[in-house]
Amino acid sequence: MDFKRIFHKIYTSISSWWKKGEFQRISRIGYDIVWNITLFFIIIGVVGFFFAGGLGAGYFASLVKDEPVRAEADMKEDIYNYSETSEVYFADEVYMGEISSDLYREEVTLDQVSENVSNAIIATEDGYFETHNGVVPKAILRALFQEVTNSATKTGGSTLTQQIIKNQILTNEVSFERKAKEILLAMRVEGFLEKDEILEAYLNIVPFGRNANGRNIAGIQTAAEGIFNVDAIDLNIAQAAFIAGLPQSPITYTPFTNNGQIKDEESLQAGMDRMKTVLTRMLEEEYISEAEYNEALEYDIVANLAEPTPTSFSEYPYLTNLIRDRATEILRTQLAEADGYTEEDLQDETLQEDYQIKAERELSQGGYKIQTTINKEIYDAHQDLAANFNNYGPEKTAINQNTKKAIMTTNEETGEEEPLVQPVQVGGILIDNATGKIISFVGGRDFDISNKNYATDVPRSIGSTAKPLIDYAPGMEEGTVQPGSIIADVDLPTDEEFPGNYSKGYHGLVTARQALTQSYNVPATRVFLDILDIGVNPIEKYYKKMGFSNVPEATYNSLAIGTTEASVEENVNAYATFGNNGNFTDAFIIEKIESGEGEVAYQHESESVKVFSEQTNYLMIDMMRDVVTQGTATTARSNLTNQGVDWAGKTGTGDEFKDTWFVATNPNVTVGTWMGYDYNQSLTDGYSGRNQVFWAQLVNLATEIDPDLMAPSSSFERPDGIVSSSYCKTSGLLPTSICSDLGLVGSDIYNSKFVPTEKDNSLIGGRYVIVNEEAVIAGENTPEEFTNENGVAFNPDWLKDNGYDNLSNITGTLLPNNSALGSDVEVPSTDEIENDGKAPNAPSSVSKSGSALTWNKSSSNDVVGYRIYRANDPDSNFRLIGSTTDTNLNVGNSEAVYQVKAVDYFGQESKASNELEVGDFSEPEPEPEPENDNEPEEDTSEDNEAENENSEQEQEENNEEEESDQGNSENNEESTQDSSNEADSNNNED
């Protein structure tokens, strides 16, 4: 093929077409169109860019408009404010140790840090560190895009400089405003700090997880010592890479748990993977060689981890945590108030979190000297007791209260899942009444088992310890109850959703003092409801004043017996009100905070709030004395080494026996203890006694160390306005002669404003009879021969006014076994006896033994007594010889015929019982006829005369015997009546 010719032909054609100008014309039109379109979009793009930039700049400006212009010196001070560690002291300036802050750090200079660390940090956290001016725009845009699109991958956009700003000047708040301020301040910092200065600051500031003691750490030197037990200068490549990977997620990647234990293999893997990532970046950035990379991967990190070392935190974990929390709270409030915020403003979660971070930072970095109220010697003794007390009760498998299934845990040795077994936990606290100082406390048995502080941070149901706080003291203050007031411990038909007693039984009419001493639930609930009935809410008016944080929004019956929850500190602090003459003083543990320069940054000032009058307070103290000396807390008193101290207190049991309490106060201090399982299982039998013994041992130990504080020689002083008064034990009103005659008069002390002024109206006098073994007021037709004229009954109007008329068994319910009144008097019932219109059934089985006639009682239920009838012989008429309420009567030994009839409440008499013949009433045999009728009759005149004389004599003897029987009958009747009256008299005396 001739390619040359073909090419020439194509060239000639194209040249001819070009010369005609067609291409130029078409291309000129297309060019104009494309250029115009391109220009349009360029203009739009430029305008859009500037518009977006303007919007962005405006938005950025709006975000940082409130950020003050910080002086270079101030910013440097903030950045380098990490070298001073705050110190903590017991009472009387006894040194305890460094503050247990969230971040424990030691300062180090850059020349004391291994170059491996610097390389690892830069390669991992900030690849453009040497070249950027505080921010990397590309990284920021990437992070912004990920945020806007809600990307699952968040790579972050913070340089080392930005991280310094976040940690030292701003907060960890996640917001565009905080990010904008961070960018602005980072660029400013880059203007006056060298790169080495920034890197050094970063290495001293950044958090690195936990150390071998389980403590949170910050700063490279602290990390090197706490994780590998080496100095920062000696960290090898593998160790440096491992530590450099931690800041991204310190708690996830740290090799230690919060208890200082090495994590299991699975949990460690995250940190190991992160180390490999750091090594890879170091290799890519040529900080290490391939050989160094492989060698580092082979390094056994776990085998070279540090061992735990003794610290003040390990010796006093509960105490140091509590001091840190309380000091942080104080500083948080101060910092917020300095910025113009109030405590109410701090209820806002965002604002609270902001100032919480600032306060924690201030505490860990401010070099403060913190003085506490804790007595070291007493505290140490109490911790030893908690660790070695040998009668807490058995361990139990932890149960999830929702699923009712066992909570599972991993056995560290076998790696297998097994049920979690937990011990009984304990909390206790000792508070000075007048000042509110927390002198000592027991936070738990073992911090390694549970790091909860059961003295201050764990609210539990307070049980019957609520009764003085919610029921009796408020009731006495309002005048609805006094120690001698009578309360019905009964199950009224009108009681709906009413708490029952611990014993499941009832005790009838009891005094308020007895109800509290024995911790009856029903009377306490009635006192609570009586306060509500006069329009007073004792929760709002009294309970809330005594420092409780968990205040119920609504009132319900079970509040009276302690279904509310409170910490041991709150409950004991409230009882200190009684020890402080009715004044509540908030408990505290931080006495003073001094700055590093010795200036007083905070000084606690105790303030008291009047809750109860002196009279109410003393009455409550006096009632609680009985709890200790003769009530539910006698075990506590019996275990005290000094039993002469004037203690007054109250026991308490939570629902289903999940909590046990004892709180008591003396004129100087208040001490309270609680025991229970962490997962709310029920305690085993004897729980209250075990807790009381523990309480007593706390008191004994503290008394040995400070007897002047713990064992005051003086007792609670009785104020003016307290008087003694008698009362009737059925109503609590002033006694009448009926109360006195029955031995139903009691005596107690009262607030003179509320002493009884009205006479008792609960009892009325009248005739009564015994019906079916129960005393009942006699009816209109009840025969008087069976009644007792000195009877006493409950007043029907009084019964109705108090709602007792609906009780099925009024006497038996109000006076169960008569024990509630401390008397054997049987007060007749006013229950109506139903008239069935029928005569009662006759008694049966009449018999005689010796001189006593006996019979079986009638089967009728309304019989009040029996009448006994006698005839001389079976052919004679029966006549009444006596009546009795018993089933026997002394009738003598003569021959006679007897029958018995039952008499009912309405005077109706039964048919006669079977007749009982006593003696021989058979006909005598006739005289035999003479055998010889022809024999002359003998002169029998003398014999007849003698026979007549004998007959007359026999008749006289019979008459005398009959008179004697009549006399015996009358005597028996009198004897029976006397016996009956004597029995009735004895009953009245009983």
Uncertain segments: 49-54, 818-824, 933-990
End-to-end separation: 150 Å
Biggest sheet strand order reads 2-1-6-18-19
What is the average per-residue confidence, as pLDDT, rounded to a whole number? 84
Based on helices, strands and strand pairing, what is the structural class?
A: alpha+beta
The 3D shape can be described as: elongated
Give Rg in angstroms: 49 Å
What portion of residues belong to β-strands? 15-25%
The total beta strand count reads: 35
Largest sheet: 5 strands, mixed
Helix content: 25-40%
Helix count, DSSP H or I runs of 4 or more residues:
30
Features:
about 1000 residues, alpha+beta, five-stranded mixed sheet, five-stranded antiparallel sheet, 30 helices, about 40% helix, disordered C terminus
Describe this structure in words.
It is a single chain. The chain is an alpha+beta fold. Helices cover about 40% and strands about 15% of the residues. The chain has a five-stranded mixed β-sheet, with helices on one face. The chain starts with a helix and ends with a helix.
